[in-house]
Amino acid sequence: xxxxxxxxxxxxxxxxxxxxxxxxxxxxxxxxxxxxxxxxxxxxxxxxxxxxxxxxxxxxxxxxxxxxxxxxxxxxxxxxxxxxxxxxxxxxxxxxxxxxxxxxxxxxxxxxxxxxxxxxxxxxxxxxxxxxxxxxxxxxxxxxxxxxxxxxxxxxxxxxxxxxxxxxxxxxxxxxxxxxxxxxxxxxxxxxxxxxxxxxxxxxxxxxxxxxxxxxxxxxxxxxxxxxxxxxxxxxxxxxxxxxxxxxxxxxxxxxxxxxxxxxxxxxxxxxxxxxxxxxxxxxxxxxxxxxxxxxxxxxxxxxxxxxxxxxxxxxxxxxxxxxxxxxxxxxxxxxxxxxxxxxxxxxxxxxxxxxxxxxxxxxxxxxxxxxxxxxxxxxxxxxxxxxxxxxxxxxxxxxxxxxxxxxxxxxxxxxxxxxx
Length: 421
Known about the structure:
By secondary structure, the chain is of the alpha/beta class. The protein contains 17 helices and eleven strands. It has helices at residues 2-12, 23-26, 45-62, 73-83, 93-97, 111-125, 143-157, 162-172, 179-188, 194-206, 217-238, 242-263, 276-279, 295-303, 343-349, 385-388, 395-398; strands at 14-15, 34-37, 66-69, 134-137, 270-273, 308-322, 331-335, 355-358, 370-374, 390-394, 401-408. The N and C termini lie far apart (44 Å). Pfam families: Erythro_esteras (PF05139).
């Protein structure tokens, strides 16, 4: 299988030397509603830079209208305000990225993102208000920050829902913004705030037309209420069932994408930046055997496979920003060469240099074999890579295309104060 696959890659791969070489990928994207751009680590500069180049082309040449990332909604809202010209206080993207203070901060507070955000702002300055590109965070972790946003806005506008927001906020207050404390209380002692956040979400959804759409306030309030409800469920579940909490999180991210799409009156075309484990269809991996779903699978099922284009990313070796424990200080870690027989190793054997593979009906069957595909998270131990950093995958079913970078380098994190969850 290995030698045959090496030759098949040689026959079908396109070399990538510069940004214009990505045009062959852009030619495959026309009427799709979402383009999902992955990464095999959260700390690799080349993945961010290549995704930025693809996103610029999708925006300028294909009419894509928003970017959604694996980040917190409240922090990403600050980016959205900045690039749309609503923020008169912050002078640069680096100022804005200081709001990304939840560990792992380096995922978005980095030099690579700062450069791309400045490009988005410059692009938007030449667009009418209804054509400006948006930037949104679709993750589930910002429970307390989302409640803060709701309560502060309701108090400012004298909303009739202020009391429901205060009730939900008061319920969570004893846990000192410590997710693990709430998780233990809700899981083991049935002392949770489920009813309070559901009541708040219901009130907001029933009366959402009453909120002003100035600077997307209605969308902001509705999504923050959705986060409060889903984060409560996520934290209540995570101690007793990892698989259930994973599914809650990925289903939440799809819900938020749906809310953004509705806000754009169903004319949105979205670019999604997340880890390969979220965007690469779970049904083509051993995740499916564990009952796990992910964003790529859910979007294909909801929108139809023809409306979703998924790009996976991988590398053979290099350096990466990660930590040796959850909440620990990030560091530059040397990533060893991909293990023998893995997807990345086979790509390496197919010849040095960066490569692009596009899977279509003519060649998809040639890449149907199950191979181990590397996945590095925010916590990484190279010495133990064999046991926890490879996902068995049928590559041509998991993605529509794959970008391989031969040697990669660590992101350049910005200095920020960190809050640990």
